[in-house]
Design brief:
10 helices, single chain, binds nicotinamide-adenine-dinucleotide, alpha/beta, about 30% helix, 18 strands, 2 domains
């Protein structure tokens, strides 16, 4: 089996996690690590260590470099890596400005290297399943995405790079890009309008921020992120409202999604035969509870000539039979799912290196599309005083 030599630049929290996850892959060999903090480079055995990343990229044995440093440094390091002939996997966000992101793409094209962004949510089987159903039209059109995320900041002291917009870009750029990209992954559409709101607890710490995004076709997404509450309240909820389904995911590495879907018999079969779907029950559409029509209100739906019920959602007519409830669930611990997502992300890039016709799951274009939204929303939020 061909083994790929990988270098990691940036050996903080996430760099270590990647090292641990990737060392379990048979075709991967982590051969070099760089971080300016010498204490972080202790105990790495036979791995070559460098305090200056420029020395790492001179190593001719390395095929791919993972860039796991703070966001503002991604452009400088990624372009230098590609100019040195290395393929790259860049941590999100691609960069903190659009001009930096465009420069990375330009250098990729000039050097003909393989470059991807580490959007790990694209490799979560739950997200892949929901996307597959979306593409099949099982749930009808996606109309609304609502991301509500409370994170603790007790481990982020005021001097941490996360709070410095010149180093991180701010919460939407550093963090929300994952979720903005998720919307683009599930339902790609042109962005028509973006705005934002934010709160700063002091001049240095912008701790709550929100982005609203309108897409062509009528999807409206909201991303609310707070880094202000204790860890006890740390939650991420992602609500997806389709014409024919409500889906609610919990956790930033979601393992479970509550599903309530209005289906015809064929779609029911598709849903029930999915290995991640656990069926809870179903009710014929004529007997299902309809909040808009309390008891005694009259008919609950309309009959088509075929004798089936039809309903309207967003002006579109759908023929349906039943309301099905259940969950999409991954029966594995979160740590396992997170590990396999980061492994799959790297394997996808290695596949592209080996086979240029392979379509990357998270090419750099996905990084710039989400960054455009994050930058516009951040500018809008900061323009309101
Ligand atoms: N994809 C994901 O799920 C995910 C999760 C967490 C973090 N991240 C991203 O990973 C990146 C790093 O985040 P983190 O939480 O590990 O941060 P961190 O602060 O824990 O680690 C960053 C490391 O980079 C080192 N560093 C700084 N400048 C460097 C340089 N010039 N050369 C080499 N090393 C340098 C620092 O010393 C530090 O050890 C960020 O872009 C972040 O957004 C992605």
């Amino acid at each position: 089996m061909k083994k790929y030599n990988i270098g990691i630049i940036g050996y903080g929290g996430f760099g270590k996690f990647l090292h641990n996850a990737w060392s379990r892959l048979d075709n991967v060999h982590i051969t070099a690590i760089s971080d300016p903090m010498t204490d972080k480079l202790q105990g790495l055995g036979s791995i070559k260590t460098f305090t200056d990343w420029r020395d790492l990229i001179r190593d001719p044995d390395i095929t791919l470099v993972a860039i796991v440093t703070e966001p503002a440094s991604h452009e400088l390091i990624a372009t230098a890596c590609m100019e040195a002939g290395k393929h790259v996997l860049i941590e999100k966000p691609l960069a903190i400005t659009l001009s930096d992101a465009e420069k990375i793409i330009q250098v990729r094209d000039q050097t003909n290297t393989v470059a991807a962004i580490d959007f790990i949510m694209r490799f979560n089987p739950l997200m892949q399943t929901i996307r597959h159903f979306s593409q099949q039209g099982l749930f009808g059109r996606l109309r609304r995405v609502d991301v509500e995320n409370y994170a603790q900041d007790e481990q982020l002291p005021p001097e941490h790079w996360f709070w410095n917009p010149d180093r991180s870009g701010g919460i939407l750029i550093e963090h929300a890009v994952h979720f903005i990209d998720l919307v683009h992954y599930l339902a790609p559409a042109n962005v028509l309008a973006v705005n934002g709101l934010k709160h700063s607890r002091n001049p240095q710490q912008e701790d709550q921020i929100m982005a609203n995004v309108l897409y062509e076709g009528g999807l409206i997404a909201t991303h609310y992120h707070s880094f202000a509450r204790p860890g006890f309240f740390e939650t991420t909820t992602i609500k997806l409202a389709y014409d024919l389904a409500d889906i609610e995911l919990q956790g930033w590495i979601p393992l479970l999604a509550d599903v309530k879907a209005i289906v015809n018999s064929q779609n029911k079969q598709t849903l029930l035969s999915n290995p991640f779907f656990e069926y809870a029950g179903s009710v014929p559409i004529g007997q299902a509870n309809d909040e808009s029509r309390p008891a005694g209100w009259g008919g609950t739906g309309n009959l088509s000539q075929s004798g089936r019920q039809f309903i309207y959602s967003g002006g579109i007519r759908y023929e349906v039979d039943e309301v099905v409830t259940g969950v999409l669930q991954l029966s594995r611990p979160k740590q396992d799912v997170y590990t396999s997502c980061v492994q799959a992300s790297l394997l996808d890039v290695l596949k592209k290196i080996n086979d240029p016709s392979h379509p990357l799951a998270a090419g750099l274009e996905t990084g710039i599309t989400s960054l455009v939204v994050a930058v516009r929303a951040t500018e809008s939020a900061r323009s309101i005083v």
